Batch of 2 targets.
Target 1
Amino acid sequence: MSTVENSADWLGARLARKEDLRLITGQGRYLADMVLPGMLHAVFVRSEYAHARITGIDTSEAAAMPGVVAIFTGVDFKDTVKPMPQPVVKPNLPARYPTFWPLAIEKVKFHGEPVALVIARDKYVAEDAAECVYVDYEELPVVRDPEQALGPDSPLVHEEDGSNEIFAMTLTGGETPEEQAANAAAVEEIFQRADVVVAERFRCHRTGITPMEPRGVLCDWNDSDGLTAWITTQRPHIDRLALSDLLEIPAEQVRVVAPRDQGGGFGVKAPFYRENLAIAYAARALRRPVRWVETRYESLMNVGQERDQINDLEIAASKDGKLLAVRNRGVADNGVGTTGVYWGFVMPFLGAVELPNAYTWERGDVSLRCATTNKAALTPSRAFGHFPTRFALERAIDMVAHKLDMEPAELRRKNLVPSLPYTSVTGEYYDSGDFVKVWDNLMAQADLPAFRAEQAKAREEGRYLGIGFACGVELSGVASELLVPMENQPGYGAATVRLDPRGKVYVFGGDAPGGQGHETTTAQVVASLFGIRPSDVVVTTGDTGTTPFGSGSIGARAGSYFVSAVAKACAEIKDKITRILAHDLQIEASVQHFEFTNGEIVYLGDAAKRKPFTEVVERIIMFPINLPEDEVGGLEHTAFFEAAKPMICFNADCCIVEVDVESGNFSIKRWVTSEDVGTVINPNIVDGQMHGAIVQGLSNAMFEEFVYDEQGQQMSADFEHYKLATAADVPDIEITYAPTPCPHTPLGTRGIGEGRPSSVPGALSNAVCDALRPWGIEITDLPLRPGSVWQKLRETRG
Amino acid sequence: MKTITVTVNGTSYEESVPERMLLVDFLRDRLALTGTHVGCTYEGVCGACTVHLDGEAVKSCLMLAVQADGHAVTTVEGLAGEGGPGPLQRAFSNSHGLQCGFCTPGILMNMSDFLARHPDPSDEEIRSGLVGNLCRCTGYVHIVRAVRDAAREMREGASEVQA
Amino acid sequence: MYPSVIEEYLRPGSVSEALAAVARYDEGEAMFLAGGQSAMQAMKSRMLRPQCVVDLQDITELRGITRDGGALRIGAMTRYVDIAGDAALDGAFGALRDAASHVGDRQVRNRGTIGGSVCWNYVASCMPAVVLGLGGTLELAAADGSTRRLEADDFFLGPLETARREDEILLAVSWPAPPARRGSAYKKWGLVRDALPVVGVCVQVTLGGDGNCLQARVALSGLAGGCQRAQAGEDLLVGCSGDASAIDRALDAIAGSVETHSDMSADADYRRQLIRSIGSEVAATAFARARGD
């Protein structure tokens, strides 16, 4: 509980959230809670096969069932709706963009692809009917290995493309092939002369951050107003443009609303999905509201699959511990790729960009190929694309340290970028921060010398403890400079701030959070700037009908871009308020001569000259006479915040484990972190973001795995098989801070939390390897499980 | 169809339901008590649907509504008393034990039953008690803290009453 | 996601009523519903499509743990939570509590029953292996009023298959009074806490006055072939005092003799290792309980 006396203290206050009351009393309104009169229920019939020709679909028995209103198949869309690859949902990256519609036409290309849509008056009946839609398939050879998919003899997933290479890029050395070749030669030369070289193949499995609330879409069509779509989405403004373009509905007749309460997104709700379009189409065709609520089975079959990369990584270093060059050949298993905005490959692209991490390199040679396979397309998951590359790099750095007989922590510190700004060898810009300060804080928490003594003593007793480190440079929002090429949309933050005559403040933002606490952090910012209380502030997000354009709740945009736009808007309004107040007080003064505090506006030159905030606001909105020249009444402003260059945040992790060498079981004894998150608005919320991200990383690294069998059948579409960490499986987490305020945002805040899981597998694996140093075990593959540890020990011990 | 009588949050309901209707759907769709959530398919692993049946935590997605005939069900909407949210609910807010809130009702229902039987639990016992509730957002750290704080407040409140 | 249409739901007050209800249906059309923690999964995935569901919750004679001297009888509808909470189930019957207190999660334990579990006999479940490991007797009743008793060895036939006929109800699982110096234990391994067993081991030992093992039963859960005895290990436990090397030899023999498989949870070799590591711990605990440590 927080009792804040000085309103300037709202920034940094551990305020209980405004969102909480409705959520702890069961009064939240999630998509599946929403009902419209006459609403119909939708169920998708999905492909049983990974790759097959559709030779027939018989819907007659299902259509005849009482309560069934309509059944749609792919042919209904093909000639009436544009194909899904429209510009608004395609990146500005050179790639192959296969044609597709919401329902499969002629072929199915992954187990779970939607083939038909059943609409019924009751959701149980809809499932009964879906069972009675009979689809005839002629099986085709399945493409399931990404390297084989890129080979010359592989069957094609998208015949029209003539290739299974959906995307490929060299991210170093410049734009032209000549420049890239020259760079590659220079890198090779470094490797030739280096004292130490590590070269390994690292594999990361298929896993991701499936949220607790599955997807859902509720569409309402009205001939006069057009389409209103409630969608579990992180990107309502983009979804709206996509629906307008694809269904050829004039843009002013499309409104998308992300429900105020969403049960987590983590990137999984960021793409523009087929189901959005199919449900909108059905609502328009039937002129009845239609709702689809995804089952967990559908969710695990179709979305939340990410990571899944092979990285052949090499590091060249000098004998005194200087990292010289990094070379990486990445292959990503893209799945079918046919998912709007991201197409599967945008994640591995960013993962390759972020490979160099927080270290200085003389040169790098980094390239990536993304292979189409008969699996669900990769969809974004927190630690967007770089979970596998960070695992590979942090493991390889430990291997370099061992060859040099150096402490891995020391090797890292020696090579951290010493001062920012800095541009990495892949061209990523790190704007600000102090990596060494963050690292030294971590080392103070970890007390490495004490641990080494404890470890030595334990070994004598036959117990094996280990310590592992990793760090991560993460995006703090995504500047337009990066987001326009990457996702064909802007990176700016936009906020409308509107005051009412009673001194209450309304903030409108076009992003769509799913648990990050934006209502509260935004209110804390506004309250601290205006000297009022967070309870006086109402925040509305996610409704395209009322909010300014927002690219979405992606890439940690809130603390970086949105909050900065809010601060800018408040600053404009404070300027106007103080201009008018100074005029009323008959003094020469501007905003810096006033303090907004505890519900009052106080003239710093004479504390007797003070007025209640509500009184001044009411005067300006309701009684706008005797104003300064050229001034009009009203208090509202929309501001846009853009960072000239992309911004970052930074974190470092330390993990201590104990390994049982008989069974391979390992347990985490301690997890402690050091964070640069810039200025903290609400420490509880930031702590919570870190805890959640780290546990997600652990759960991905140890337990969760999407498995496809030889026939491309997905075997992990329920929580018995796709196992999430329970509270009993993960340790307590200690979060510590060593922040540097961001010089580019009005409040010094940084966006945080998106990339945070990426350093987890490296720190964990490094700790296990450190415990098993007597046997020289090196972990190169994820998931990390007791069985694999035991297997490696058995191979080594004989 | 079958006519059942179920007491939910203290109110008795007589309803005609299909035999196959799940208890969670009866609560959400028939009684409009949407605080109880559905987070998995047939497996009943996630725990978001947890309610009390005659005071004990159960998964309402693994029950038919007809099985609740003659019984008392409590949902998250029935947790708060006359004075508003109770100590467990308040502890969750004060400790930031929820983010998206989707798993929260199930956790509140499970933990309220758990604390009734284990009024002074260790962190290890709390974590074991939470095995039937998956949370994606919090990483469980603040949830454990919230349950611990609620337990303490409830013990102190109880001893105050006795004094 | 949702069960297929159920035509009739019945809640009889007695065993004879329940049996009469099921008898009105053809084979495969009616089923008994106990705690529902497995049955509902099967109904919601439509693996089972019963026309009639006979809910046993009101039949009080099916519930409860009763003792007669040292003999133990557990009604089929007795919940895991009640077995786990019965502190007197220790020593010879310790494995029952070990298993019951870790099935699923506490919500599952408030509903799931020992009878439901043994009649379902899913490979990745604990109670069948424990009942088999402890050599329980299963009491079955038929519609004509007759009853029969089957030993556990004759009851469990294979994955999802038991000797119970569709028109029979399991009334209880029972044991005669155990001899002195008998102890049992159970433990399972899964990827996450209390997950369905990838592998589980139940050991029951009976010691002579000299502290050496007179008789041993070992049963395994999680194997593709269903719950099964491990005679290879039982023979090696007889005669030993429960020392670590004897236990290890026995578990090595078991691990070497069983058929294991590889799947997404673990590979075949690691399953053998798990049998060894878990089995050693379980056997040591069984011996300690037998000694009264």
Note: The radius of gyration of chain C is 19 Å.
Target 2
Amino acid sequence: MADIIWVYAEISEDKITTTSLEMLAKASEVGKAEAILLGPAPEDAAQTLAKHGASKIYRCADGVYRDYLTLPAAETVASLIQKHSPAVMLFASSYTGRDIVANLSARLDCGAITDVGDFQLKDGSVEATIPALGASYQNTSTLVNQGTKILVVRPKSFEPKVNEQPLAIEEVAATSDEVLRKVHMKERVVVKREGPSLEGAKIVVSGGRGLKGEEQFGLLKDLADVLGGAVGASRAAVDAGWVPYAMQIGQTGKTVKPDVYFAIGISGAVQHLSGMKTSKYIITVNKDAEAPIFQYSDFGVVGDLFKVVPQLIEELKKRKGA
Amino acid sequence: MNVVVCGKVIPASSVTIEIDANTKRIVRKGVTHELDPAAASAVEEALRLTEKHGGAVTLITMGISDATIGIRNALAMGATSAVHILDDALAGSDTLATAKVLAAAIKKQEFDLVLCATESSDSYSGIVPGQIAYFLGVPPVTFAKEIAVDGNKITIKRQSESGYDVVEANLPALVACSSGINEPRYPQLKGIMAAKKKGIKVYTAADLGLSPDQVGDKGAREKVLTVGRPPKRQAGQAVTDEGEGGKQIADFLAEIKVI
């Protein structure tokens, strides 16, 4: 019998997240994929999961999972694991995913492997591949606990696949434990953004410390606009307060895998590389020829970004018009 | 309000961190160490909160003897006291074993609030704070980019994929701070001098009531099997801008058929 692999499905901005679908693709490849869907979800959420390989969906639409963040979900998932003991359970390396795993792994005393880029399952034992230290290493790890193995998966590690399954839903009861209502979400604030989302963009133009300030990010916006791309940033630029955290790419920010990634005035710290290293093409502009980012570039220009980038924008506009 | 900060002392940012293929652990011996910048932010946040509401700040770190340099830095920033969990038996601890050790050490202190970084800058699992909170039985309030305390209530702005959430809990609680929550202060001479007089309490695993099979390699659920390097990405072309750099990028974009 195929091993059962569970995927914790997440909703963001009224949609099942792409990472949930990526994990379902891998889960279906390794065994029999099933999904857990907790909290209020859009109407077609279960269909979307089934369409991408979930042969069964454990669902509870109760608002407790939204209003009290992740403690209620950890409790519900723990009791489901104890009841059904799947071979592996996958969570996204997201805010929600990491929070649930933290509580769950302590609760079940089972540990977890984080930052997983790929995994295999052999005779009930899991072997996970981890791009450690900003992907400068590629290690493998296993979990020696009995029972379900918990993995936290990096976004963009797999491609979502359509793999239509008949819709099978099992409704589960909401947790009613008051103790789990200790962290109360009072308000959800959506910060508006313009243009395509970073995760979905085919072209990403990112800036770092070399941009020297907030206004200069306008230059990157202009470049992104000509190419129909999105603007990102390194942690240095975010920590300096030039751009919001939502734009951060790297270990502690978003992981992107566009067709073309522009690293402008970014040195290529490990922290940043881990979020963009798997982009198809990397183009670099940096005044420091020794910057580590050049080792990862397909095309690099050593020079003043304030000269090179405006010239590039002009050139693109010219060629577009032609 | 007494605040306990859990923070790591890690290889300095000037060091290229390496993993020993035999021990399968990060090379820490003989490497220059510093207080993890992420931990420094948690210390800074604790200092700001206690400057406003009163109380003491205790730093707890688990690490090798070289960690003292980072502990001194936190004390020089203004932390009241420090605890160093130092025991060779702790080497090889995974996230769960680490959380058990830190929680046991925190329980020996008086605290209203525990502050951590969301994740350390060297191994960045991001799940230790939540594990500690579970072992302490306090609410985990994570990914905080802003913290406010009002009496018994703590309110944070928690980062989310689409913006932020306003989240509330009662003290005692554990808060994990995101990077960039603040700009940590530099220790001043007065602080550095004062830090020399502050004692560092040292605990072993046994002092914390933990048996050797609960911690380190033996207690770890996660085992590293192999340490390797990823296939090298072939470095491409690099040119020096001689006035045509922008045009050359456009040529490359045309070559790969993006334009």
Note: Chain B touches chain A through 79 residues (CB under 8 Å).
